Automatic annotation (TrEMBL), chain A:
Alphabetic keyword roster: Activator, Chromatin regulator, mRNA transport, Nucleus, Protein transport, Transcription, Transcription regulation, Translocation, Transport
Role of this protein: Involved in mRNA export coupled transcription activation by association with both the TREX-2 and the SAGA complexes. The transcription regulatory histone acetylation (HAT) complex SAGA is a multiprotein complex that activates transcription by remodeling chromatin and mediating histone acetylation and deubiquitination. Within the SAGA complex, participates to a subcomplex that specifically deubiquitinates histones. The SAGA complex is recruited to specific gene promoters by activators, where it is required for transcription.
Database matches in Gene3D superfamilies: 1.10.246.140
Any GO MF annotation of the entry: transcription coactivator activity
Organism: Herrania umbratica
GO terms for cellular component: DUBm complex; nuclear pore; nucleoplasm; SAGA complex; transcription export complex 2
Full protein name: Transcription and mRNA export factor ENY2
Location of the protein in the cell: Nucleus, Nucleoplasm
Subunit structure: Component of the nuclear pore complex (NPC)-associated TREX-2 complex (transcription and export complex 2). Component of the SAGA transcription coactivator-HAT complex. Within the SAGA complex, participates to a subcomplex of SAGA called the DUB module (deubiquitination module).
PANTHER family named in the record: ENHANCER OF YELLOW 2 TRANSCRIPTION FACTOR
Family listed: Belongs to the ENY2 family.
Single Gene Ontology BP annotation: protein transport
UniProtKB/TrEMBL annotation, chain B:
Family to which this protein belongs: Belongs to the peptidase C19 family.
Domain UBP-type residue range list: 31-130
Subcellular location: Nucleus
Gene name of the encoded protein: LOC110410551
Superkingdom of origin: Eukaryota
InterPro entries membership: Papain-like_cys_pep_sf, Peptidase_C19_UCH, Ub_carboxyl-term_hydrolase, USP, USP_CS, Znf_RING/FYVE/PHD, Znf_UBP
Keywords of the record: Hydrolase, Metal-binding, Nucleus, Protease, Thiol protease, Ubl conjugation pathway, Zinc, Zinc-finger
Name used for this protein in its record: ubiquitinyl hydrolase 1
The reaction(s) this protein catalyses: Thiol-dependent hydrolysis of ester, thioester, amide, peptide and isopeptide bonds formed by the C-terminal Gly of ubiquitin (a 76-residue protein attached to proteins as an intracellular targeting signal)
One Pfam match: zf-UBP
Amino acid sequence: MKHSVNRPPTPDAADDRGKEPTLQEIINIKLIESGEKERLMELLRERLMECGWKDEMKALCRAYIKKKGRNNVTVDDLVHLITPKGRASIPDSVKAELLQRIRSFLVSATL
Amino acid sequence: MCARNSLYTNIKPCKHLADYKLRCGFNGYNSLQNCLKTTPNGRSRVDKHDTTIPRCSFCNGYQGRLYICLMCSSISCSSHILLHTQSENGHEVALDIDRSELYCCLCCDQVYDPDFDKVVVSKQVRDLPGGKSNGFEVCSGRSSKRRRIDSGIELDLKKSKQLISMRDRRAKSCYPLGLRGLNNLGSTCFMNSVLQALLHAPPLRNYFLSDRHNRDQCRKRSGEKLCLLCDIDAISSAMFSGDRTPYSPAQFLFSWWQHSSNLASYEEQDAHEFFISVLDGIHEKESKVRNSSKDDGDCQCIAHRAFSGLLRSDVTCITCGFTSTTYDPCIDISLDWEANNFSSSNVANKPIKTDEKMGLSTLSGCLNLFTRAERLGSDQKLYCQNCQELRDSSKQLSIRRLPLVLCLHIKRFEHSLVRKMSRKIDQYLQFPFSLDMTPYLSSSIVRSRFGNRLFAFEYDNSDSSAEYEIFAMIAHSGMLESGHYVTYLRLKNQWYKCDDAWISEVDEGTVRASQCYMLFYVQKMLYYKSNEDLSCMRISPRRDPCVSTAGCC
């Protein structure tokens, strides 16, 4: 089975149901429920498009498809191809902006 | 019935998807339709109205890509989706929850089904506020006003062939007909360069060669001494007369000074500004003659018939997604400079100097920038009819109708009011000789708002009138205040440089290496047609012109 680069380190599903949700999970749930996650995703998409990151990833995918042939490539291949490079090439300014937004959300959520 | 563009509906389903459809038809799609939720920007996701967030049934993970099985609605993540297929027979097709896109678990790949996309898009349209009038023209049986190529050339081509049938014996060079230098009358290279481009634009060239604007009739009709069209007609006759000695367009310059008195001087002017003012002058005269005040979209003057297109502007409210659409005619497109300043050296936190621009700027980059959805600043809130208040909005331009001749103006001159200075962007811009404008059409832009869908829109221009060939390029060299304009013309796939009075043959490399300022493209069919006409002219021994018939050459 392929290792998904997104796979979180998780124990068995059976054990997990009894455990307390981690802090990460709680934050994530709060973000989704309030709709903030959707807004953050939109903001992220916009920023990544503006700085050319999206075009860069598109170019990578195109080059790969050209090399392998259009019928020999699956979406999973492309995801595995660009995930490490994509994560590494996100500009610091974008990271900083999103962190700032999440922080201010957390502050307002606990009030 | 919508006209379907085959490009978007001819994707074959994989075996597993085809099996699924045979077994279940549209039941799965329709029941999922109720679970689809649309966000204001057009993304569609599956939302089952549960209070809990979706989690993989194998690992309880909630991150990454999650898929919902079309048969049993169980949710798996991308690592475990294969397990689900293996454990249940017949559960091969799933749906990506965040993106509403079909996924075949056995092929491990995304699959496409136009029927499914129709279900998704109709839900999206239903959800958007304003319903059908929301910037999205659903198939309503309205006949699309497609600009047909013929409409620009109901011109009598027979006449033009007779006019140029006698090859001029005086011409010593083997240059094609119509190439002639224009003398510089005192910093008038801006005028010469635009005239060269205009006179070789196929619709205009044919117009003048077919004597559609007869100077004698014009004088009798209007009684005015000044007519820009008459003067251009005179230049056109001079260009195609066969005489290769450089011509001085003094009469035209004088007429133009009268028309645009604010630009009348011996100073260097901007070629683009001149271009607009000439077209304006042509239009003015025409509308005076015909006494019509038709708007630019329907005007039949030669300037508009050749250059007029229609731009679509969509303003979308960020909060609710309501889109209001307006259409504006245009005679050219001015493109902002696309600064491609992202390159792989941005990776790993390497510092970049702020004035260093890496990467290649291309015409398609500029066109992408032109049609990109732009978030308007918070100081530019617009009134949203649906929310009934001022809201943050995003604006997106696209081309509703392409002109016969497409003039692209590259904004190389930056004037900053703040810093009270102007500068020229000297960088090289890469541009193609064959240009496909399909991605910038309204149909493509609007379609892309619905994601990766195979869905045909009512006004798909399925006739290939989005393909263009370049025939002229005006290049600028030098500085902002004191530069020089030169036109490169492409006749029968050979490039010629028109530098005021000097015409020379040049190779493609020279053209590509120049700093393009204005690019002139003509619809592909017109380009090949016009090249055919001239080259098929033969003079038989009896001196009768051999009129070409289709397919004779």
